[in-house]
Design brief:
Layout lengths: L3 H12 L16 H8 L3 H13 L6 H7 L9 H6 L8 H12 L4 H13 L8 H5 L2 E2 L2 E2 L3 E5 L2 E4 L33 H10 L5 E4 L9 H10 L10 E6 L1 H4 L2 H4 L4 H13 L3 E7 L9 H12 L3 E8 L7 H14 L2 E7 L6 H4 L3 H12 L10 E6 L3 E11 L2 E11 L8 E5 L21 H11 L2
Parallel strand pairs: 4-5, 5-6, 6-7, 7-8, 8-9, 9-10
Antiparallel strand pairs: 1-2, 3-4, 10-11, 11-12, 12-13
Helix pairs in contact: 1-13, 3-6, 6-7, 10-13, 15-17
Length: 457
């Protein structure tokens, strides 16, 4: 049954709608010429965006282009960089290859084949997700699930494997390029529930994508309500990973089924489960519009907990002051700062990545500016093959400058919170570029190799 409180609020919202002229419509590569004409993008830049969007997925919507991007600051505007393709997101040789095909009037199939060859070289599934994370259950692989850490299972509902807009840095870009074998997607909720009944060590389910909140409420309800079945009492928290609060806050305020969505969340929480909305904010600008703040308010009223995470990214948020303002704003709105990630080693990595030492400096500079309420955030964190590795900073041990690291999560729980040390490397951008400081191997490497070998059998 729908919550009377939320239906009342929905009726009030329908009388005074937010952004009445805005209706959701996906803007894709075919819309780039129209967007360029409307917002004054020159022909050369348009051509470059079209070339890059042949390889890396592009999708936006009117809210992002009308409300979030400051077109007077383009191309330096952070939200423009966050959504629109840029030439340097591709290697020069790869860009030139696709550009030549366009210039020569090549057949679309020929261009698509060249793009696919490039995509396969961009590490579409980092950290060996397909090889190591997809669980084997009752003799078969469950390709809509991932189970990397003991307590947490990820589920990819097939209806939620797109987004209101695509982040240009997204580490799940391979979900959106139309290559079936690269896509995680599941439709069988009973398959998930059977797996969970057999794995009582799991306490958390993360519903992820894409973006699950692009689904109609009735589809999402089928998944959430299934997790309330008998035999799943050990699942105490369900997380939903979403960028909708940034890219389409109307989902919670003025969409046709916004009231039903909020009522669903309220019912779920009332059944005794924790519901965590894992929001994704890359810049404080995403929280500045009135409708975005109203969406946050409405979500908090359901009893859901809101947490926020983002990678640190060149061109978008590689500044301690940006992060400090973001965390202060979130804390003031009741959103818990959760993670500062390191840009993952996939897709347009070369355009966004920062040296790990620099990421740690940004984190330290930002955390110094906020109160303890916002110091819930952890970072910078790499989501690597062995687990989530935090860079604590740089220290001097026995006269040697070293990088201090530790696992926040690990494939083996025994690795968690064990400090370890790497040689100081001001250029390294990922764990596999670091060398152990005081031994031949990092402490986890032998066990990790055994895990990889076992999974290959």
């Amino acid at each position: 049954m729908k919550s009377n409180a939320y239906l009342l609020r929905a009726n009030l919202a329908s009388q005074k709608p937010y952004h009445p002229a805005l209706h959701f419509s996906a803007q894709t590569p075919r819309d780039l010429p129209q967007l360029a004409q409307r917002f004054g993008i020159d022909e050369q830049t348009l051509h470059e965006m079209q070339v890059v969007s042949t390889v890396l997925p592009f999708r936006t919507n009117p809210y992002v282009t009308e409300e979030l991007i400051d077109w007077s600051r383009v191309p330096d505007d952070p939200i423009f960089q966050l959504v629109f393709p840029q030439r340097d997101m591709l290697e020069p040789d790869d860009f030139d290859r696709i550009a030549r095909l366009y210039d020569q009037g090549a057949e679309p199939s020929q261009i698509r084949l060249a793009a696919l060859e490039i995509q396969k070289r961009l590490n579409p599934h980092p950290s060996q997700q397909q090889e190591l994370n997809v669980p084997l259950h009752r003799g078969r692989r469950l390709h809509g699930l991932q189970h990397k850490y003991r307590e947490t299972v990820l589920f990819f509902p097939a209806e939620g494997q797109t987004c209101h807009a695509y982040c240009s840095f997204c580490f799940r870009w391979a979900q959106f390029i139309g290559v079936k074998e690269l896509r995680f997607a599941g439709r069988d909720i009973e398959e998930l529930c059977e797996y969970l009944r057999d794995h009582t060590e799991v306490t958390n389910v993360l519903i992820t994508g894409g973006d699950p909140l692009i689904m109609k409420t009735r589809h999402l309800a089928a998944y959430l309500e299934a997790l309330l079945q008998p035999g799943l009492e050990h699942i105490h928290t369900v997380r939903i990973g979403t960028k909708a609060l940034s890219y389409w806050p109307q989902r919670f305020v003025s969409d046709p089924d916004a009231a039903e969505l909020l009522a669903l969340f309220e019912r779920f929480v009332a059944r005794g489960k924790q519901l965590a909305i894992m929001t994704h904010y890359n810049h404080w600008r995403e929280l500045e519009t009135p409708i975005s703040r109203e969406a946050v308010r409405k979500l908090r009223e359901t009893g859901a907990i809101l947490r926020s995470q983002s990678p640190v990214l060149r061109h978008i948020n590689d500044d301690a002051n940006i992060w400090a303002r973001l965390w202060r704003t979130q804390a003031g709105l009741g959103i818990v700062p959760y993670y500062m990630f390191v840009e993952r080693d996939t897709g347009a990595r070369r355009y966004f990545e920062l040296p790990l030492v620099r990421a740690a400096e940004i984190f330290r500079g930002a955390i110094q500016q906020v109160s303890g309420v916002a110091r819930t955030v952890r970072g910078p964190v790499m989501s690597t093959t062995p687990g989530k590795v935090e860079i604590d900073g740089v220290a001097r041990i026995e006269g040697k400058e070293v990088m201090v690291l530790r696992f926040l999560q690990g494939r083996d729980p025994d690795w968690v919170h064990r400090p370890f040390f790497a040689e100081y490397d001001p250029a390294a951008t990922w764990l596999d570029q670091l060398r152990p400081a005081f031994s031949d191997n990092f402490f986890y490497e032998i066990d990790l190799k055994a895990m990889v070998k076992m999974s290959a059998k």
